[in-house]
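Researcher: Final request for today, and then I'll write up notes for the group meeting. The sequence and the SMILES for pyridoxal-5'-phosphate follow.
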Amino acid sequence: MIREETIAREQAALMRNYGRYPVEFVRGEGAWLFDPEGRGYLDCMSGISMINAGHCHPDVVAAIREQAGVLINTSNLYYTDPMIELAEWIRDTSMGGRVFFCNSGAEASEAAIKLARKAGGADRTEFVSLEDGFHGRTMGALALTGQPGKQEAFRPLMPGARYVPRNDQDALRAAVSERTCAIAIEIVQGECGVYPLDDDFVRLARELADESGALLIVDEIQTGMSRTGPLYAYQDVGITPDVMCLAKSLGGGFPIGAVTARPGVDDTFQPGDHGSTFAGSPLACASALAAAHVLDDAALQDHVRKEGACFLAGLQGLVDDGLAAEARGRGLMCAIDLPDDRGAQVVSDMLERGFLVNNTSPRTVRFLPPLVVTGDELSTVLAALRDVLAA
Ligand SMILES: Cc1ncc(COP(=O)(O)O)c(C=O)c1O
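Model: Predicted protein-pyridoxal-5'-phosphate complex:
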């Protein structure tokens, strides 16, 4: 699966912050990745929901090729058209407000944090976010990421973050005050193991933000771009955020992040308040526009809902048969809890059978296939999983 020499070179050249699975990829197509020997692996991770349109989607490849031959980047000192077109698309498909571009999810969180702090003024410096939530690993984003294990080595963090357990309405009520500049949530908590928030809890967050004068930041970095069915997961809950963060699949695999805010909040940043040299490059935006046109598609979204429901029913079947403890999901964002701590072993056994999944904890295995995956392909995942769990 992987050459010894590749592992040795990686260990000598790269910092030790990633634990990689023992496989190397040299090519991708649709829902498949291929190793140097040409063995295909069914990708059930999409680069952590980063390549929803599938690997090397022909439209994305064509857009990158064409743009790369014309203009790659200019910085934000000048006007370029792909950036404006992509901002118009984000504005018109979400809250109708202006857009800020950056290069990753964590940078989108940082921009949202600065925007909320500036909008809140000197008296509103607190954030309320959720225990087990994930918003990125840079210092501001890490402060909103309610996971002590990830924060510990990096204290002191940005002050003012308060965490409440997901779906605990009383705790949310108690945490939000006139000092809160923003409440930050994911509609489905992804990194900690795919936990959809109760719709009532999300609606309460919206109400409390309105009552207290705080902003509601919805982090759609993992849930966005049709991953859960709708283009943005908040659209199925019937609320509208004040601020939304996007990244991952927005770029079709090419790095880009974005923050959009509703009209009235979208003029918070003024020249000099925030920026990024690379952000909104013609190349990144051309790739993103191509991916957006693939993913903002009713037929694809129906497919995600139908195949997601079918896959979740299959996972539930494993629970019913005593092979798993719980199944959760929305659209093609799913997870199972195991009855024991065999998560890493299950991932490794699935890899051996040619399926890429990951475990978000020793007990939880997550599935985020490219949205172009077929029902037949997902059936093979379920069959392999049954085999692995029954072993
Ligand atoms: C919900 C959410 N927010 C933010 C991030 C951070 O994105 P990035 O890794 O691009 O910095 C992630 C990454 O997994 C995420 O899932």
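Model: The pocket of pyridoxal-5'-phosphate is lined by residues 48, 104-106, 109, 134-136, 186, 190-191, 219, 221-222, 247 (CB under 6 Å). The chain has two domains: 59-295, 297-341+348-366.
Researcher: Thanks, that's everything.
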